[in-house]
Amino acid sequence: MIFCQQAGKAYNRNIKEDRKMLEIEIPGWGNMEIEQIVLDMNGTLASDGRVSAEVKTKINSLSEKVKIYVLTADTQGTAGKEVRDMNAELVKVPEEDSANGKLNFLKTITPETTVAIGNGSNDQLILKEAGLAIAVLGDEGTSIFAMKHADILVKDVSDALNLFLKPKRLIATLRE
Using one digit for the tens of pLDDT, what is the confidence trace for 30-54? Predict the structure, then answer.
């Protein structure tokens, strides 16, 4: 687990640094190298604090190819339980400045090789700075600020994950 003490402060990182990577050639974009996917928890990965079994299965499958991080202020108080059976690292950020907490975490990894997936206003900074940004509509809707910084908009997190489990979908969406 990774915990953010406060926005702007160092992270206590107890992570195995296995170098996984997913390479996707996209006409007009070039060779996209993805090492990690950063997902917002509530509203993106979870609905009402719960992650579906289908999404957990997709996360576990995708984690064989890339490192997965789940970022949250844990508004619903369910993040620890919900992430426990997923092959993902939980990153808790402060509730009072979660946008900057998420951005500060993103800066500790390589933003250029990171996919950020989110739906809220507090995700706009990571969506803006990540190598590829995906906004999720989901049950809670999508902040216009998140959408403004997204490269792709999908109807739910399952569709976002499928872009990497079935990369031809991503190629079809982004090719120029």
Answer: 888 999 999 999 999 999 989 999 9
Number of H helices, E strands in the chain: 7, 10
Please give the Cα distance from 164 to 58 (Å, whole number). 10
**What strand order describes the sheet that includes 114-118?**
11-12, 2-4, 89-92, 67-72, 36-40, 114-118, 132-136, 152-154
Which range of residues forms the domain containing residue 37? 2-7+33-174
User: Which CATH number goes with the domain that contains 97?
Assistant: 3.40.50.1000
Assess contact for 27 and 106: CB atoms under 8 A.
no
Residue-wise pLDDT tens digits, 79-92: 999 999 999 999 99
In a domain, 22, yes or no: no
Confidence (pTM): 0.89
Other Cβ atoms within 10 Å of 108 Cβ, number: 14
Q: How many domains does the chain have?
A: 1
Query: DSSP code of 176?
Result: -
